[in-house]
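Summary for the funding panel

The consortium committed to producing paired sequence-structure records for every protein in the target list. Below we show the first two records in order, beginning with the earlier of the two.
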Amino acid sequence: MFPRLIHHSMPSLLLRNLALLTWAGVLVTADPTPWTLTAPQPHAVLQRDSRNAALVPLAGLFPAEAAVRSGDVIEGRLGPKEKWTSWYVVAPGEGGFQIGVTVPAGGPWPMELRIRRNREILAIASIPVGVGEVFVVAGQSNSANHGSERLTPKSGRVFTRGSKGWQVAADPQPGASGDGGSFLPALGDDLAKALGVPIGFIATGSGGTSVREWLPKGIRFERPPTVMGNVHRSGEGWESNGELCRNLLEKIQSTGPRQFRAVLWHQGESDANQSDPSRTLPGVQYAAFLTRLIHDSQSAAGWPIPWFVAQVSYHTPDDRGSDDIRSAQASLWRSGVALQGPDTDALTERWRDGDGRGVHFNGDGLREHGRLWAAALVPWIQSQPGIQSKPPSTITVQPAAGWPVVRPEQKETSAQAGNAKVLRLGHTEIFMAGGRPAFAILPPPTKEKTLRHGQPWVFYAPTLSNVPDEAERWMHERFLEAGVSIAGVDVGEAYGSPGAHAAQEALYREVHRRFGLSRKACVLGRSRGGLIVASWAASHPDRVSGLAGIYPVFDVRSYPGLDRAAASYGLTPGELSGRLDRLNPVSKADRIARAGIPALLVHGDVDTLVPIEPNSGAFAARYAATYPSEDLRLIVLPGRGHDMDLGFFRSEALVRFVIDRAWAGAHPR
């Protein structure tokens, strides 16, 4: 799916054409015509799924002055030995494209793209992307960059993600403390060799930290750690400032649900056998604190993240470890809270810096550290569903949230290609609302009745140049036959942020003034439109008579990811992460339930683009927990993904619900 579409330049982008110039991810023809790709990032590694493949986000923006026009075809392939296939057709007025490409495990693949107009190739680009195994790494110094020798991966298949994007995983690892060496290059090479796929890391380790410092803000404890940089006094005890936890959760959430394999936790030295005994953490508290961190990360991510916990407590030859801390770490394996990581306390003098007297690893120690982690991980990974299966032999293309894919063979001419996407029905009005493009589709005059409280209508989202589209014709025709209008406004990429409400408010006023539509509407969100309608319904429950969704997005962590959504909320990703309980549309399901707004959602159970669990599933769970009733219905389509199946767009249950609730809005109690 689309965990994150990050707007970075692409310095490694390779462009070729008769008169092409190249810089920072921009294609320039002799015209000149720039084309900016926004995803994927160069060297990105995406987590493979049970199909032994991954859905790779692919997106680009067309500047207004670009020569790209309606009917131009975006074609792609995984490398120069493959055949070009059509992946997207440009529609009228589009500012860009956004699709998902199912890519088999392996690589890095030299993915190539080109824009074609009939027989003319306008531009071509190549960007490396891998599908394999991704890990988040956390803990203290020996999980970070404090080894005595910097390592560099030798396989060409190991990468790491930092604040500037993906890069070769040469030490020091971005995102972790220290400027020395780490075990990640060695681990990555070992995993790549054993599993035959690229490896990606997201490092968050911080040297000298106690598990107490990784706790969420507000969790109190009696004994302070030796290093006090991340804790402060709180009454009679102590409390973490929550920064390490916040950073870890931000990294986890920014990937999207199930977009990495596991968290690798290597920590314990700063809780074991401290020189001041009052700062040593008892093992039972260590286990409780780490359990809290694990559970909080799983709750924040919206899926049961596997955690591997190593046995770590060694300091020096004179202090070879703590049985109490080691037992606490092992207790998490036995209880099922975590999985068993390596025992790195076994790496004594031979593997340590300072001529064997140090706590950090020398070069040989870093390599052995990586080998031990690989020995723990490989059998478990190989046991996961689908990993041993043969990757798909062909790639498939599906739409991103709200953006359908229309292939050239579906068009008779390039001129028809531009218009076939856009839904054309009956009496359609195009106008501006609050400075934003808006539409209203009105039923025939014979279907309208003069109602005291206005005509029934559907408040639709998202409104794009190509949505609503032809896939929805049958559904909207049923609405119109029932005397129900449809209206929507293009709020831009607002992702459910309150900033979209001004344009929605303008549409609401305008359709009432122009067309006499009712004061209450049934809102209908398709895909990312779910974010828009849920946010509006929660803020304006008195104007909503029902909420319907077709594979709706409700959780911004699921799509588009915090990194991309944050700007729409006027926040940094970290700030948005800290306010999700108030701002995330899925967290507002209880408000919608308390307002007595009925809801009906249709979602496929194998949707990898907008997974059902963190979206419709989470919304339904919160709604039902607040207001258990028959006013909520979740229809799950077995074996369906984020596609154009008739079960979504010709759902009698959904159409009847929308019509009934739209008319209920025109007859308020």
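The next record, for a separate protein in the list, is shown here:
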Amino acid sequence: MISLEKFKELVLEGIPTEIPAKKAYDKNINHAPIRKDILTKEEKQLAIKNALRYFPKHQHAELAKDFADELKTYGRIYMYRYRPDYEIKARNINEFPHQSKQAAAIMLMIFNNLDNAVAQHPHELITYGGNGAVFQNWAQFRLTLKYLAEMTDEQTLVMYSGHPMGLYPSHKDAPRVVVTNGMVIPNYSKPDDWERFNALGVSQYGQMTAGSYMYIGPQGIVHGTTITVLNACRKIAKNANEGTEGKLFVTSGLGGMSGAQPKAGNIAGVVSITAEINPKAAYKRHEQGWVDEVIEDTDKAIDTALEWKAKKQPHSIAYLGNIVDLWERMVERDIKVDIGSDQTSLHNPWAGGYYPVGLSYEEANEMMAEKPELFKEKVHQSLVRQIAAINKLSDNGMYFFDYGNAFLLESSRAGADVMKADGLTFKYPSYVQDIMGPMCFDYGFGPFRWVCTSNKPEDLDKTDKIAEKVLLKLAEEAPEEITQQMKDNIRWIQQAKENKLVVGSQARILYADALGRIKIAEAFNEAIKSGEITAPVVLGRDHHDVSGTDSPFRETSNIYDGSQFTADMAIHNVIGDSFRGATWVSIHNGGGVGWGEVINGGFGMLLDGSDDADRRLKMMLHWDVNNGISRRSWARNEGAIFAIKRAMEENPNLKVTLPELVDDNIVKGLF
């Protein structure tokens, strides 16, 4: 057990002056798959030279051999021997050595992202999604912490894809950290480009909240998944009084964010089966209480689900096996599935994001590293079979939606029967296109979140009560258009504690609009000032939000004016947040649907009870939401037009260009 003083000493040390002893490869940890051998001989030599830049010359000969072994064995240079001996987990903010409280908060968030109980592949510095990295190697981790511990509120730390470029003079209202991840020239943004650049140690895939230090465990997506499942049930309901009881939801993926699915299913009141091929991931979620039971036999999993369906009681099953086997067996048995989806990481199909049918977990891992082209063929064949089974179940009444992980996109590339007759659009909607976009994002509702830096559960309880009180008051005057959203979110926050959502830091997620976020943040800041909450609170959000992400197959899939392939919104958002008071900001290429398919950004903001924090939160949160509503309004989205008009009425300084709606008959026949 390392003492607190020793811990602080090790953080301040940065990269050790002496080379640490090699560490044993811990087989009890869920490790990243071996990456493909993609570099030429000359590029491999360059990768070693790049890695050695962090170390003095007299250590190069020894470390060069070590790093070369890692590159040969794992396809990456992680610098395992530099992984610290202390436990990496969220701590009380005051346990981190610091000159700046804002910097200490960022250290807390980084530690949470790499907690063994939170991260998908913690020893490879990957938080979720198979490749969503916080850093590329452990030297970057150590050097970043040293900079954060030493910096003041008159400096800004600049992060290039996990690499701490350095501390630069700035001012107290500037961000303490500015992060970029994977920002490559657009013509070099294909999956193999990521493999090459990441192996060279010059870029990384930050996913969304992995590389921006804002991941809060699977809770981060539970709320959104709950809302999605609830509204999917409402879409297929025969009448307004029909509930979720007895409905069967079938999906796949329990690794990172997808681990939220069974918990969300229980909260929504449905019976769910979630397929997962990785035993460590499935049993980890069961141990954490996020899934009720793990079943390894296909028919038993189906039979158990049908028993709970007949009882009309919520229950979640992790099926330890391949999702294609499950879908095909359901077709053979003519099972009535109410709702279907998929959340395997198909943004990363060739490096552990998807495991094809017919191969064991171990066989697939071996093939993807040693025979990547054959593995790609197997993935394509598997997707064709998966879509064929889904089509048959959908013909029998199942409502299927893409959960924004590039499932339909990759299936189309595999040649699966997933396109409509026009050959341009998918047979099935994205969940954002059908549910989250028109019902939440257009009205400004998105995944607002906060973390109590005291790391005390009682502080989180206080924030829950404060947020509930704020929402109940706002609901009294809320317009009819957002009544259902308010009801769902009040119910969520009232049940949050009993649903046992916390994994890692004392954090909470809550879908709220701009007014809700501002009022909740104001109340938190006042409670910190009075001492009711014992330490500062970090505010943030998922990048998967109203304004933070331009992604044509997910976040902006309900944009129909042709601009869904543009990224002005996400870029403007991070720039606007940075000069309106964010504590840190980030902008990423990739996340959710894949490298080269999306631009997304996020922020973190520390509330410390000060007047400065009150000023910043009002400015930044207002922009952070209304930027996206403005863009959605200009795309002629009805809900967004309503929401931005309401925002302009509330704040006379807001003046947004509104669209004039065009009668279709005016343009028909012109060409």
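Regarding this second record: The chain has a mean pLDDT of 94. The longest helix spans residues 372-395.
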